[in-house]
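Input structure tokens:
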């Protein structure tokens, strides 16, 4: 692997699943006296490097929060700018990501998206379906509570159709109805800009995640910052509810 390491990372103990809340584009734009759309554009540049590097490092899964179900309440101009960036991103990146053996999955309600965006996302999923490298999940029109309610509906349908007894509803079966079915739980959750909230992101999947909150605004989040977050994750003692043993 040609990518240099900017922090002491043990490549044998990488997080299997990294999730990122890319926060701070608006404040970055304000700081630079730019329109908000340019903050999101700069944020998209940061995201390209993080995706490429995750693939090069050998991270199993990377999940990015691009647009939440609550983001529709922002101004029309901002929503349109984000939708255009999402479209441009898929058009410009898909060939390289496919070449890198990246498999793309969209988390969220694609039916609620404009047709052009929906078509591009579905095409990216279809084209990369058989890829075996990095699992790149992009959460768009996503909310974790909506995801859980959807999983409950799917289970209820199975019960109604006689495929399942209520007593057979287990954590495993519920997990299999989430958008992240088949993926490991999140090991490392990063939220930039110093905010320390989950904001309706992967509530179930983050049950045992380690949280890292770098203060840098998302457009300034670079590989140095990313590797520092991974090193921080590797320094944590994870117990999963167990009592620490003597050697911990
Ligand atoms: C939060 O910053 C960021 C978002 C709501 C959007 C994140 C989207 C991108 C980085 C680019 C588009 C995504 C793809 C996949 C191409 P904020 O605007 O809430 O920042 P603020 O809290 O400083 O206002």
């Amino acid at each position: 692997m040609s990518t240099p390491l900017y922090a002491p990372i043990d490549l044998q103990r990488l997080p299997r699943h990294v999730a990122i809340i890319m926060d701070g584009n608006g404040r970055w734009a304000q700081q630079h006296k730019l329109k908000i759309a340019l903050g999101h554009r700069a944020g998209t540049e940061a995201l390209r490097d993080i995706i490429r590097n995750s693939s090069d490092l050998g991270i199993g899964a990377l999940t990015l929060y691009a647009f939440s179900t609550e983001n529709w309440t922002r101004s029309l101009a901002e929503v349109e700018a984000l939708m255009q960036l999402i479209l441009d991103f898929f058009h410009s990146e898909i060939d390289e990501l496919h070449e890198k053996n990246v498999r793309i999955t969209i988390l969220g309600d694609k039916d609620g998206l404009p047709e052009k965006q929906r078509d591009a996302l579905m095409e990216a999923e279809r084209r990369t379906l058989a890829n075996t490298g990095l699992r790149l999940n992009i959460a768009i029109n996503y909310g974790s509570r909506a995801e859980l309610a959807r999983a409950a509906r799917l289970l209820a349908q199975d019960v109604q159709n006689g495929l399942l007894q209520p007593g057979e509803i287990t954590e495993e079966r519920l997990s299999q109805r989430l958008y992240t079915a088949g993926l490991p739980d999140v090991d490392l959750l990063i939220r930039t800009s110093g905010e320390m909230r989950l904001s309706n992101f992967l509530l179930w999947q983050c049950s045992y995640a380690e949280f890292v909150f770098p203060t840098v605004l998302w457009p300034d989040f670079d590989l140095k910052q990313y590797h520092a977050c991974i090193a921080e994750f590797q320094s944590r003692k994870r117990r999963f509810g167990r009592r620490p043993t003597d050697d911990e």
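Strands lie at 17-21, 61-68, 103-107, 135-142, 188-191, 210-212. The pocket of farnesyl diphosphate is lined by residues 22-27, 40, 43-44, 47, 66, 71, 82, 85-86, 89, 138, 193, 218 (CB under 6 Å).
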